[in-house]
Design brief:
25% strand, 25 helices, Penicillin-binding protein 2a (Domain 2), 743 residues, alpha+beta, 5 domains, Beta-lactamase, elongated, 7-stranded mixed sheet
Length: 743
């Protein structure tokens, strides 16, 4: 017996060894070519994980552009069938729960989805498209709740959730500030190219296309905003189940970088509002404006509007060119300071030397030309020619300088070349070489005719006057931030050229200051801040739609402030203003008042430090306390003591202040009446001191709520808010900001 047992063990060991030998041989050497047979029954696919396009922010972190993603939701019935085999009753029970969860979460037709699910002809069904990630998450959450409340389904929640397939199908750019800066931000739209990368040649690659920047900031920084798709190899067996293999390859997506512009959204709002008002009032074809830092070249606001823009939707406007960089016009007398600066460099005139400014008549072979002012100015110093903008005077200065010097100096300033801003659609100005000049050109160029510039270039020139000679590269990208939070492409001021000497520029600065205090731009003058600049009015002969000749005018004002410590340069231009009895076509009556309004509104911004302390400024400015929650009588007493007019938007004898405008702690003009809202005791009072709960909201809804509470928001990610940096119901001040994380 013992011998037989021993023999049996030997046989079993031999058999086991034989089996192990074959397993090892087959695994390592595959002598029967089994792998190829298996592979024939395997389906290899590449699952794409799409990158997120970067967001666009202003210099203070305010979100200007983000991306909304849309999804298609499908349901794979094969997973349910396999788990429940032939148990049709429980399968239908699961389908009922799925359709109910979908309907409750999205508000769509659940009965239709249930009919599709119970149709035996389909292994997988389409549930809905154009769904937000919040809809998908809500559906999964509701499904989880309903499944946990249903007993004896004999299928796990995880299996049902696995059958619910969400697939990204499209994306769209969202603009929290709606139509603000439409031309500046530009357009991003789906890539319609038929060329696909190796990673996008699967079926899913054909269904989804990333959006690409076409114009504006979207086009300028498209390479930064775009990323690179990730992918993962997947193998399915003949039954459609995933096969796990450690050798499968993958690549994580590289998301686009967020870009932070130098644009200040509050400056942009002010500039756009005032240009829009002027466009209608002065009956111009185009209105353009630039605000720029004179020492760094940072573009703080860039706005342009055409006469019919208000009739068009923002989506259409985003396809249009960015007027301050794409549209060029004749700058007129804003060029006279360049000729004057060249005269100072060549010491042509003593400070008190008088120059003949009477009408100047030239007789040429082709005819005569008379250059005159709107009134005879007699004799003026070089300073007086700039202050009172004399055409004959500056023409005599140019004649004395000569064509060679004038051409060289205008070239040195950079006329006729691009500013190197890199902004999409920028056009270079027009400045012809001397060989192409006519016999009229020398004088014409001296006062800004026979040339053209875009308004950004004009801002660069006046920034050089303000910063004592540095021609700067204008820049609009402050920095970018990648998905790991690394800061890239940080702005560094770049000096392209240096013109003139500080002593000559300081003399010119004195001229430009007197233009505002005594000359053609006195309407710009403010008691509490010194402004320097120069007006420009040029005549344009046009033909209307009925082929009638009409005269219009370009009206410009370029200036910087404060004069004693220049910080920002502002350019305002109206193209082809109509001649009218109010003389709005003169820069002094159009561009200058608009410039003044822009400056006044900038100075009212809460953290504006352009004016530190002057008596007249302090007398005009007020800062309201937070009166929300006060009794009516208490608020009225405060306003009376401050000497501020007020009104109530709802007519009640008594009550509690429920809202106020302007909000608390914001600088505003005492000439502006305060508006108050009343609520009765027991009514809900808006408490602006508590942080709202943004969680679960879309970004747009969160921004709308934040604006109503005067709360500054920043955000990262896409989808719905899952986290906020300040907990809900935390007491805050109006200076506090909150960062939202979306997923």
């Amino acid at each position: 017996m013992e011998k037989r047992l021993k023999e049996f063990r030997i046989v079993m060991y031999l058999l086991l060894g034989y089996i192990l030998f074959h397993i090892i041989t087959i695994t390592l050497f595959d002598p029967f070519h089994l792998d190829s047979e298996i592979n024939k029954r395997h389906k290899i696919a590449k699952e794409l994980e799409y990158y997120h396009r970067g967001n666009i922010y202003d210099c203070e972190g305010n979100l200007l552009v983000t991306t909304q993603y849309y999804y298609q939701l499908d349901f794979d019935k094969r997973i349910i069938r396999k788990a429940l085999e032939k148990d049709g009753l429980r399968q239908r029970k699961v389908y009922k729960i799925v359709s109910k969860a979908y309907a409750k979460a999205t508000g769509r037709d659940g009965d239709q989805v249930y009919r599709w699910l119970t149709n035996e002809n389909y292994a997988s069904i389409f549930m809905g498209s154009k769904l937000l990630v919040s809809d998908i998450n809500a559906t999964r959450s509701e499904l989880d709740t309903l499944l946990s409340q249903t007993a004896d389904l004999r299928i796990s929640n995880a299996k049902v959730q696995e059958a619910l397939l969400a697939r990204k199908t499209s994306e769209k750019r969202i603009y929290p500030y709606k139509n603000l800066a439409s031309r500046l931000l530009g357009l991003a739209m789906a890539d319609t190219s038929t060329v696909t990368s190796p990673d996008e040649r699967g079926n899913r690659g054909k269904e989804f296309r990333h959006i690409k920047g076409r114009c504006g900031m979207e086009g300028t920084f498209d390479k930064l905003l775009c990323g690179e798709n990730g992918w993962e190899e997947i193998i399915y067996d003949a039954l459609g189940d995933k096969v796990l293999k450690p050798s499968l390859k993958f690549r994580d997506p590289v998301h686009g970088e967020d870009i932070y512009l130098t644009i200040n959204v509050r400056y942009q709002e002010i500039l756009e509002e005032k240009l829009h008002e002027g466009l209608g009032k002065y009956q111009a074809k185009n209105a353009m404006g630039v605000i720029m830092n004179v020492h760094t070249g940072e573009i703080l606001a860039l706005a342009g509007e055409q006469e019919n823009d208000h009739t068009l939707p923002p989506a259409t406007l985003r396809t249009f060119s960015n007027l301050p960089v794409s549209f060029r016009l004749e700058p007129g007398s804003t060029m006279k300071p360049i000729t004057a600066l060249l005269a100072l460099e060549n010491s042509l005139y003593k400070p008190d030397e008088l120059i003949d400014c009477s009408p100047l008549i030239f007789d040429y072979a082709s005819g005569s030309r008379k250059i005159k002012d709107h009134e005879d100015m007699g004799e003026l110093t070089l300073e007086g020619i700039i202050v009172h903008s004399s055409n004959p005077g500056i023409s005599r200065v140019a004649t004395r300088l000569g064509s060679d010097k004038l051409e060289d100096y205008y070239n040195e300033i950079g006329l006729g070349r691009e500013t190197l801003s890199g902004i999409h659609g920028e056009t270079r100005g027009l400045f012809r070489s001397q060989e192409e000049w006519s016999e009229y050109s020398l004088c014409s160029i001296a006062f800004g005719q026979e040339m053209s510039v875009n308004m950004l270039h004009l801002a660069v020139i006046y920034a050089a006057f303000a910063n004592l000679g540095n021609i700067l590269q204008p820049q609009i990208l402050a920095y970018s931030k990648d998905q790991a939070g690394n800061i890239n492409h940080v702005l560094k001021p770049k000096i392209i050229n240096t013109i003139s000497q500080p002593a000559h520029l300081k003399t010119l600065q004195g001229f430009l200051r007197k233009v505002v205090s005594e000359g053609t731009a006195t309407a710009t003058n403010l008691d509490y801040i010194e402004i320097s600049g120069k007006t420009g009015t040029s005549e344009i002969i046009t033909v209307d739609s009925k082929n009638r000749v009409e005269t219009r005018h370009n009206s410009l004002f370029a200036g910087y402030l404060p004069s004693n410590d220049p910080r920002i340069v502002i350019v305002i231009a109206f193209d082809r203003c109509v001649e009218d009895k109010n003389k709005y076509y003169f820069a002094s009556q159009s561009a200058v008042p608009t410039f003044r309004e822009v400056v006044k509104n900038i100075l009212l911004l809460k953290d504006c430090d352009l004016v530190t302390s002057t008596t007249s400024y302090q007398e005009m400015i007020a800062i309201l306390p937070n009166m929300v929650g006060m009794k009516k009588q208490e608020a009225v007493k405060i306003l009376n003591d401050m000497g501020i007019d007020y009104s109530f938007i709802n007519n009640q004898k008594n009550g509690i202040i429920s809202d106020q405008y302007p909000p608390a702690n914001i600088k505003f003009s005492k000439h502006q009446p305060v508006k108050l809202a009343l609520a009765q005791p027991g009514e809900i009072i808006t408490d602006k001191k508590l942080m709202p709960d943004f969680r679960g909201m879309t970004l747009r809804r969160a921004l709308d709520l934040a604006r109503s509470r005067f709360i500054k928001l920043t955000a990262s990610g896409n989808g719905i808010v899952v986290k906020q940096s300040i907990e809900p119901l935390t007491e805050i001040s109006l200076e506090d900001g909150c960062h939202l994380s979306l997923r």
